Amino acid sequence: MLESFSSVDSSRTAPTEWLLARIAGPNRAAAIMGDLTEMAATRGRLWFWATYTRTLITLGWRTPVAAFLLAIASMRFFVGTVIRWLMYRRGSHLMDAGLFSNTHLRLISWNLAMLMAQFLTFALPFILVRFGLRNRLTQLTCALFLIAMPVYSLRPWFLDLTSLLIVVAVAAALALPLWRRPLIVLAGMGITAVAWRVPFLMGLARVYRRHLPYLSNSTVVLSDTIAFALAAIVCVYLYRRLLERPPASDRTIA
Amino acid sequence: MKNEIDTEPGYYYIVVHMNPERSLGEFEQIVLLAVLRLGDEAYGVTILAEITAKTGRNPSPGALYTTLHRMEDKGLVTFRDGSPTPERGGRAKRFVIVTREGRNALASAQSAYQSLLQGLDLLDAQLFGGANA
């Protein structure tokens, strides 16, 4: 039984090991496949495939690519259902009087708050999946997400207050050493996402220059996806540079 | 991180704060203890078997590998490659070794448990059916 399983499956496991190596690296993948093959000799093929699949998911769901795909999917769901419903339902209140009487100031603050909220609908699931809930970057993103979400009520008072609260929260995070680096990582990610979001920037510019052309839906989706992919890369890079702990050999134990 | 709370020469104390990011989770401690118990024979299959035998738990291999990889990244464990064997489809065993940092982290976590247990007769109560409880 033991020999038959390993001899039959040694060739068949090559693609599975290749797939595992994409997530865990070649050395780890070889060791894991060896362990699973050894244990499958007494537990059978069904156990092997079930355990292999579970292992693949367990090891793979926090990879940047998986986190990115999950974040894009959850953002599309959120924007396509919750936000669309709120926009249609609450849109009529948009021009009511609010805290800021200056129209331009309101326009700028609302757009910035909306921009941040939209960015956070992608950033939160990505960071949550990639780094886990116990991470400080996730906690900061979560807090900003909760602060920013009332903008989708489209009620001017909420929009004004949310804009104000976002500024206060960002200033507070910048002032506190514990939260400064996570904020820098999030800001770097956000700036990248916004800078590459051509349709949104064109939408903003259209307020002042109405002759600018409208982009097709597919162009918008493609542009968004590229922008968020770049933002995810920047996030992972900045996280490694600013927040990842040094190797254990560099640290001392008191 | 150290704070001097009494600076009188020759009679000062150093308060050492336990770094929360260094603290070990329960499963990490179980894995490290199993690896230490197994000595030179600690690899995926034997670690899973040891945990099952000693704790009654049946952890999934995925959970074990995730924990081992995380601890490797933290520098708590390292690996040594064995020789390829036919029952593993020609793949080598990857033996786990607990590093000095791993031992220190485990000792620190266990001493915290011991401190909390001191004065409680939980183990006696469990062993003797609550006679001393």
Report on the architecture of this protein.
The complex is a heterodimer of chains A (254) and B (133). The termini of chain A are far apart. In chain A, helix 1 runs parallel beside helix 3, helix 5 packs antiparallel against helix 6 and helix 6 packs antiparallel against helix 7. Chain A is built from ten helices and no strands. Chain A folds into two domains: 39 residues; 182 residues, no CATH class. Chain A is mainly alpha-helical. The longest helix of chain A has 29 residues. Chain B has 133 residues and is α+β, with helices and mostly antiparallel strands. In chain B, 47% of the residues lie in helices and 17% in strands. Chain B contains five helices and four strands; from the N terminus they run E-E-H-H-H-E-E-H-H. Chain B is globular. Classes of the chains: A mainly alpha (254), B alpha+beta (133).
In short:
The complex is a heterodimer of chains A (254) and B (133). Chain A has 254 residues and is mostly helical.
Helical content class of chain A:
over 70%
What are the segments of chain A in which pLDDT stays under 50 over at least 5 consecutive residues?
Answer: 248-254
- Give the amount of beta strand of chain B, in percent: 15-25%
How many discrete domains of chain A? 2
Q: How much helix, percentage-wise, in residues of chain B?
A: 40-55%
Q: Which spans of chain B have pLDDT < 50 for at least 5 consecutive residues?
A: 1-21
Distance between the termini of chain A: 52 Å
Chains forming the largest contact = A-B, 35 and 36 residues
Query: How would you state the average pLDDT of chain A, rounded?
Result: 81
The number of helical segments of chain A is: 10
Output the radius of gyration of chain B.
19 Å
Number of separate helices of chain B:
5
Largest sheet of chain A: none
Silhouette of chain A: elongated
Regarding quaternary structure, what we see is heterodimer
- Main beta sheet of chain B, described? 2 strands, antiparallel
